[in-house]
Amino acid sequence: MYFVAENLLDEMLRREDIDVVLMTFPSKSAGLYKIKPQKATILDDESFLSRIVFSLLYGIKRSRRKVFSLTPLRKALSLIELILENGYETYYSKFIFRRYKKWINSNEVVYFSPTTDAPKYLYHEQKVKKFIVLLDAIPFKLKGYEKQRNNRWICYFLNKDFYYFAISESTKKDFCEIYPSINPEHIQVIYLAAKKTFCPQMEEKKKELTKSKYGIPLEKRYVFSLCTLEPRKNLIRAVKSFIRFAEKNSVGDMIFALGGPAWKDFEKQLENDADISGLYSKYVVWIGYVDDDDLPVLYSNAEWFVYTSQYEGFGLPPLEAMQCGCPVITSNNSSLPEVVGDAGIMIDWDSNDQHIKAYEEYYFDEQLRKDNAQKGLQRSKSFSWRKAIDEMLRRMSNE
Q1: Which SS3 state, helix, strand or coil, does residue 289 take?
Q2: For a 10 Å CB count at each end of the chain, is N or C smaller?
Q3: CA 272, 274, 278, 280: dihedral to nearest 10 degrees?
Q4: Where along the chain do its domains lie?
Q5: Does residue 379 contact residue 341 with C-beta atoms inside 8 Å?
Q6: Which residues, 6 or more positions from 52, have their beta carbon under 8 angstroms from its beta carbon?
Q7: pTM of the model
Q8: What is the pLDDT of residue 120?
Q9: b/e 9-30 (16+ beta carbons within 10 angstroms → b)
Q10: Distance CA 36, CA 194 (A)
């Protein structure tokens, strides 16, 4: 969601037809997003949509620490810190809006948030239109995320009066089912985009340097996967199926390169799995965190990209891969068909056999890889941050 907020704001700051005013809380985490202040000053022009208040409320750490495992003194200090921090931020925000009350009343103002609800004292400001981005409904769709349902960002601000941008038709459908009180006409779908830096990069020297940097054997081709290593991403199945595919077809020239942060016990689960015992290190290389500058090279030179997640609000990695000319394999659920369309192989996320079959189709059919790579390049052109902002502004100006 930080990536989405950053790119939406970057695109807004390029526009001449709107002014951007940033509202942040003065907490120690407010500096997570760095921006040149002169790019977001309050101007006096009277454009068709003269003001957007852009909320950057993410990144505020509200005492998610394990308070009850602390000593009594530390527990008391933590609670005091929490009260002071929340109280100060609430007062600060109210002060900002009191200061600009006349300005709000004399201008057309839209409060836009890329991830969180509007402050409570703005709820009854009729002059301020309120638009919020809906990213996904994971806590309501999947097991293991039940605690997040109590997150006020998700539960308490959804109402029939606000307006929303959903990042896929799937996300819109999910929220309409979960919260039937929401007016579906108040939710508009706007698709995300990959950065322009994601483009084919096939230079041999750069390819070799990048493979060496991440421990990918130079003499081997590789399949690539990139995501957080959490159960929802379905990586255990994807990796086990690749090992079975490789053993079944005596594949000795290819490995599975797995990018992303560490997931506790991930490797241990695979190494101790009776079905693939002793084969993990033979076929899988965990390359860990990947620098942004290296991602296009890894995408571009992979034989194919695997992203068979159980659920996605949008699914940016497959789009990034497609934009780099890499064939993709994704699951056929949630929002992924909206992103990939007919430009990749789509399978059931929970089918081992379909994973193996998809690997075999790409491995033995070079022409299919080339065809889907071209389809992906073409389809990726229909997604852009400029298009997303254009659609947002049209909606904001019409309400």
Answers
A1: coil
A2: C
A3: -70
A4: 2-193+385-398, 204-380
A5: yes
A6: 12, 18, 19, 20, 21, 109, 110, 112, 396
A7: 0.81
A8: 67
A9: bebbbebeebbbbbbbbebeee
A10: 23
User: Residue 291 in contact with residue 260, Cβ under 8 Å?
Assistant: no
How far is residue 362's CA from residue 369's CA, in Å, rounded to a whole number? 6
How is residue 169 written in tokens?
Answer: 């038709």
Helix (H, G, I), strand (E, B) or coil at 349: coil
Residue type, 210: T
Which parts of the chain register pLDDT below 70? 23-107, 119-121, 146-157, 262-267, 274
- Can you name the residues that pair with 306 across neighbouring β-strands? 329
Residue 280 tokens read as: 């993990």
Residue 184 DSSP code: G
Sign of the torsion angle spanned by Cα atoms 73, 76, 82, 85: negative
- Residue with the two structure tokens 């949630």: 334
Do 2-193+385-398 and 204-380 share a fold? yes
**Helix H or strand E segment including 255:** strand 254-259
Inter-residue contact 213 to 294 (CB < 8 Å): yes
Cβ neighbours of residue 384 under 8 Å, at least 6 residues apart?
A: 193
How many other CB atoms are found less than 10 A from the CB of residue 262? 11
Kindly report, residue by residue over 311-339, the tens digit of the pLDDT.
Answer: 999 999 999 999 999 999 999 999 999 99
Q: Does domain 204-380 have CATH number 3.40.980.10?
A: no
- Token duo for residue 198: 């994601």
Alpha-carbon distances of 285 from 290, 331, 380, rounded to whole Å = 13, 22, 28
**Cα→Cα distances 248→245, 269, 282, 360, 369, Å:** 5, 21, 14, 10, 21
Structure tokens at 63: 């005492």
* CA angle (224, 228, 234) in 5-degree steps: 70
Secondary structure of residue 41 in the 3-state scheme: coil
Q: Are 305 and 369 in contact (CB under 8 A)?
A: no
